[in-house]
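User: Fold this, then the next.

Assistant: Folding the first:
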Amino acid sequence: MTGKSAPAATDLAPAEPKKEPVPALEGEPAPAPAAGEPPVPEHPPAAEQPADKSSPVPAPAGTPTPEGGAPAPPAEPQAPEPEKPKAEPPSSPLALTVEEVSENSVTLTWKAPEQTGRPGLDGYVVEICKDGSPDWTAVSKEPFLSTRYTIQELSSGEKVHVRVKAVSASGASVPATLEQPVLIREILQLPKIRMPRHLRQTYVRRVGDAVNIMIPFQGKPQPEVAWTKAGQPLDTSRINIRTTGKDTIFFIREAQRSDSGTYELAVRINGAEDKATLDIRVIEPPSPPQNLKLVDVWAFNVALEWTPPVDNGNSEIKGYIVQKSDKKSGKWFTALEHCTRTSCTISDLIIGNSYSFRVFSENACGRSEKAAVASGVAHIKKTKTSYQPEKIPQRDMMEPPMFTQPLTDRTTTRGYSTHLFCSVRGFPQPKIIWMKNQMEIREDPKYIAMIEQGVCSLEIRKPSPFDGGIYTCKAVNPLGEASVDCRLDVKVPQ
């Protein structure tokens, strides 16, 4: 053996199928090998014998051997990869309900889980268990992604428990299970609660009032009706429930604050159910405000402050009512209503009087029975001031007549009444004189003269060509006179 290893062959011939030798019978010579076949060695090949520790290991093909015959240095070991955190399985499906029940099947619906895990959701698996048996059996061969599934081939009259699991690559979720077993029989009509519109919001009553609520429902056969409050059965000593085949009646003779809360109504038929909630709030008047005090008094104003009441009567405080009482009369008068803040300023107080103040709180039930009364008294003191009226100079209003709008020439048609207008001012009010062709028009039924707010008018009724000419309006008062003229033409239609 030499120090250098022989180079590996680059092209290997395809291996022929190995033929097993046929064992020779005792006393017969072994058959001679066929032509072209090498004789079978008596010992196994050297590759199958354990290699000598001193013999070098042949280098792989294509790997250069370092000069001088030195072996290649060993490869550095790779660092182990860090383990990935184990993914959590998905959470349970939500809102598992029975949608429909028939003689040999039941249809389920649910909602996807809140958490599906890092690998994502592979699907759902539905399992059933007969009532009284501890064994659960999967009814779906493989996971599916639909949130609705119908279980077939069930026996009529038997009760089965149903649960649904969410499955992913990291495992299965905690199953979502129906609370009650499902009775396999045909439901003629699914349960349905017909909640009245006015009960879909908070139902408010006062302390001592009666609560009488009727809620209709439907379902065949006769459904089972159950009332609860915060998951607990109702107190039958205070609440009376009467149920018929079509409705249920919720009755409280005298409501108390403790009756407030959320009530749950469930209508069930063989595992199929419908639920509704009823919010009831019983209110009463609030307690009075706290810590009412006078903050400041100045001139005829008073500033007040207080804090909200301790008990709001189970209803939001809508505002406050502020009242005042003067020392002379002793009567209370409302000074401010619907005050939404816890402070206010009262004005227009009478100087020289002393005032007391009180405040009521108010909610949807009404104002508080008692009021918070301020401990102090506000004294509106008199101030030493003297009033000096402003001296207004007297203005001379005397003015001679002056026309602000003159008369204008007009043309009219015979038989059609016409008007002449002008405006005048002056003080004292001037006397108005109308003239035609320098002749004063006196009491003539053909002419109607008027003056209003300084506007002078002369109506000429059904004029004729004879009524045409120069018309003059003269204004006269003790300080002087003024006049304006115009021409009137009356045409005769052809």
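Now the next one, as you asked:
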Amino acid sequence: MSDVNKTIQKWHASFRKGTDFDSWGQLVEAIDEYQILARQLQKEVQSTNSTDFTEEQKKTLGKIATCLEMRSGSLQCTQSNEEFKLEELKKLETIIQNILTYNKEFPFDVQPVPSRKILAPGEEENLELEEEDAAAGAGSTEAFPPRAPALQGTLLPRLPSEPGMSLLTIKIEKIGLKDAGQCIDPYMTISVKDLNGIDLNPVQDTPVATRKEDTYIHFSVDVEIQRHVEKLPKGAAIFFEFKHYKPKKRFTSTKCFAFMEMDEIKPGPIVIELYKKPTDFKRKKLQLLTKKQLYLHLHQTLHKDS
């Protein structure tokens, strides 16, 4: 079986898993699965070096990602009249399975999620090296799209509560950096990874921070972790990647990262250390960003439905 067929098979299995959870009433798990699959499809759509799919097929994948996010949104909004129903979503199963041969009109009038540059860990460093090796002003920067993050971010609402289960809200208060004032369009990407660096939850971006003061950039924003604390596997960690825009390179780069392990989840304030890029999701080779007393300042709140 070719790599592309394996990828399609993996997407199909994820789609079935999500719709199964949905039909069983396991909404939290369904939302997780839909959002993770939507992100995987978006990454494929936005990949510039992938020749596995035609532009038309990528457009279809982007529309499927939109439908997954719409269904996920319907499940998260208790006031909703289920704008996008499970029965409608299930119509997309054969399209995912047969994406390489599908040539009919898409069954729903939706648009692909707007594309934005998603850089894999370490990719921005490679781009920087290539840029530095190239002659200055050779025009190669045109390859990079302008501005990555949406100003308003991609933060998600709190999950529905479940009896005996805890949900975690993390307020990102501020980050300490020696050149805080020089960072353009700074924002934070939050992800939850297992020991192998695999996403357990949908990845979220904060809005761009606008307040800078001395060596601090203030965020003052709440992030809702998209899984009950009790369902996070042993060895999981919550990652915070600080990103900013580089005008000369015309892309968004990761400057540093921090993470919080499961034994650090407890109500109240916490201050965590910053590490040098590239982001090491497996936590094997960590290098502190600075010896100065500069950290990421967070405040945790646990919500338990008794």
